[in-house]
């Protein structure tokens, strides 16, 4: 089911982007750790003075700024920071659209898909690469927190083990984004529109989860937001597996991935 | 029954490509257990009354034979060739080989555009077939359906007797394909590109890659980004040929090649056919197809308008004729219907649309000083197909 040559080439093509994003996320989280250690209290004090900011912190990160906030919880915010999400999602979208719609658009699909391999092999071999990338990226915030806590002096012990649960939850989120992106990539003939559609979906979904606490009428729609199923602060605080959220994200991933496979197997390949 | 053939050999499997005198293609796989016919002309006998001449186009896997071999058949079998008692039971049995490509009633619609209309043709193994038609006639669409890149709206296609829609992976293992406008991974070198494609095929093609690169004079260590269009075309040809496929499908393969390289490519393709493999050569250049191919399929507006041996097609093509009579008075009052001429003093200049033999026979009865019959030009015939269409419209 896996063609080694395609897997290897996709891996080679994606490696630099993935490694760059991974280094970027780790570097950013290290900076975030430093910022939280030095500015965390001030930020929380400032935010606690304004009702709007209190709500923003609560809605966006799951932090009650007027309560007790441990350093572990503050560091967990890094998982949902826009920079981390943008970098990791960008890698998912770039890899998932590279082989299917990317090759169709460039015209190299004519070469690849007339070789003695099934389209399922192509799809599975390339999917394996972005799944591996997702695994790497999902654990980058943990690595960043760990390195940051080693470099900078922390007032309390950083329990790295606590971050594995949100990291696995983050992996499920990345798989869901990758699944959606694969589905869209298999359905279109041009990479640009495919990327635009996926970015649109994840952005809308994020914005929905960010604004729904402020707009009552949007509350029933929050289930459509991907970030509704990724609450790292709550996970670190409770230190329990978010099984429901993970299951929903995995179900979304599997559904989209399988639909993408079906479409890719059946679709026509136009000339570039 | 004739006597003992010359140049006999023992025990091997051969493919015979047979063309009857009506231009119909026949293929047979024969197991020669005792003797092999050589270069001489022999008589072949089977148990049917109809008469037909057969020419052997190809005898594969034979190191003892070279050049064309002729078989003269006094009888033929309508449904197949089952040769027995041939040269002291030399051939134990032969059956008709399945066509290598078979398209049946192929239809393709793109929204309201009817791109292919009942495309129906078959290609026998061991043949170089030209797929000829102007741009937009449906050549590339047909090829893409054969390769499983597109799905027919209706109809069916088989290659090697297997369905292109359900057995694509198996079929593609024995196909080499050169797309019309080939694109490569521009960040790779030529060698890495070919190595990658060979690995996807799970084949080691290193020797053949090196040989072809040498023949086509292509530097494989440059990145594809630095390749000219002609160099990319060469790379495309190498990737199509490197695994020695049983069937080569080439979509306008020489469009970016200079005449010297084109000649080399044509030689390679002739070698491919000599080895018993088949080539489907799509082109809009009539001269190329005429120069290279055994058979021609002409497609026009999504329809197959002709499929014939080129030699047979040429026999149908009009010939330019110039006849110089002994005097003006020697020009007969009534000319044959197939002769379309204008007179100039004692000279008739025009075209002949019938059999050449009939023209020669007629000329023999006339008082003439000189006569010139030009070789038939397939281009003239090709144009008549298009004139027919225009006039019907």
Would you give an account of this structure?
- The complex is a heterodimer of chains A (272) and B (393).
- Helices cover 74% and strands 0% of the residues of chain A.
- Chain A has 10 helices and no strands.
- In chain A, 47% of the residues are buried.
- With 272 residues, chain A is mainly α.
- Helices cover 26% and strands 32% of the residues of chain B.
- A 6-stranded mixed β-sheet of chain B has the order 3-5-4-1-2-6, with no helix packed on it. A 6-stranded mixed β-sheet of chain B has the order 12-13-14-9-15-16, with helices on both faces. Chain B has a 4-stranded antiparallel β-sheet with strand order 8-7-10-11, covered by helices on one side.
- Chain B is elongated and about 75 Å long.
- Classes of the chains: A mainly alpha (272), B alpha+beta (393).
- Chains A and B meet through helix 1 and helix 5 of A and helix 2 and helix 3 of B.
